[in-house]
């Protein structure tokens, strides 16, 4: 559903329901046709629930977008560290087939997120103890390796959080649409009755946002 279209509909529904509850003459006329204060409150409740789920959806997408921007910056920084450490590791373990395999030193780096992050995470997870001492011997700084490992872990967490946010946003959208259908039905029914109850006072219908054809 397009955001502009939803905003327009919600503004229209808001005008109708607010004036239905606050305009004395409209309330009086509509009560005679079964629209008590309780029934108007039903419409208000539906309107509020749609707004709540819309806000929830927007919040989830905003959080996901913020994580995307953060990940972009962090990945760029981590790539620089990783390529530096990878070059050192390839030289330091050039005669160690086991470590070459464990650190995945040979071959091209994966380009997709799943493959690349797996290579990086595996690399830093295995640089401990004697392997870390060997890396330091060839110029790697322990604090930079620790920093890169922490960044790899944080990026993995952020990626999972992005997935959660996307799922939550989808769930909020579905719930919003479900309530919106109920609200649309409520408004449609109200309008049908209002056209009968207020037919002798077109200005009251216009106050509800119901267009009345002009008579020439």
3D architecture notes:
The model has no long low-confidence stretch (mean pLDDT 93). This protein is 80% helix and 0% strand. The chain has one domain. The chain is rod-shaped. α1 crosses α2.
Summarize the structure.
This protein has 216 residues and is mostly helical. The protein contains eight helices and no strands. The protein has one domain.
Topology at a glance:
Elements: H1 3-22, H2 24-31, H3 37-92, H4 97-102, H5 113-125, H6 130-137, H7 142-197, H8 202-207
List keywords for this structure.
216 residues; rod-shaped; mainly alpha
> CA-to-CA gap between the ends?
38 Å
Which stretches of 5+ consecutive residues score pLDDT under 50? none
> Which outline best applies?
rod-shaped
Would you tell me the overall average pLDDT?
93
The helix-strand sequence is: HHHHHHHH
- From the alpha carbons, calculate the radius of gyration and give it in angstroms: 31 Å
What does the largest sheet look like?
none
Query: Helical proportion?
Result: over 70%
Percent strand equals: under 5%
- State the total count of DSSP E strands: 0
């Amino acid at each position: 559903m397009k955001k502009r279209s939803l905003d327009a509909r919600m503004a229209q529904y808001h005008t109708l329901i607010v004036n239905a509850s606050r305009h004395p003459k409209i309330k009086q006329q509509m009560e005679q046709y079964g629209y008590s204060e309780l029934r108007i409150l039903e419409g208000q409740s539906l309107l509020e629930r749609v707004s709540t789920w819309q806000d929830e959806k927007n919040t989830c997408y905003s959080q996901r977008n913020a994580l995307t921007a953060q990940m972009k910056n962090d990945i760029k920084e981590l790539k620089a560290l990783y390529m530096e450490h990878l070059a050192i590791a390839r030289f330091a373990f050039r005669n160690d087939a086991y470590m070459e395999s464990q650190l995945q030193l040979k071959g091209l780096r994966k380009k997709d997120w799943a493959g690349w992050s797996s290579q990086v995470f595996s690399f830093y997870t295995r640089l401990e103890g004697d392997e870390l001492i060997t890396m330091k011997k060839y110029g790697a700084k322990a604090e930079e390796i620790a920093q890169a490992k922490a960044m790899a872990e944080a990026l993995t967490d952020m990626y999972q959080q992005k997935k959660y946010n996307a799922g939550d946003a989808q769930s909020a959208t579905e719930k919003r649409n479900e309530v919106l259908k109920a609200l649309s039905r409520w408004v449609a029914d109200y309008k049908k009755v209002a056209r009968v109850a207020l037919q002798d006072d077109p200005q009251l219908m216009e106050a509800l946002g119901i267009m009345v054809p002009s008579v020439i």
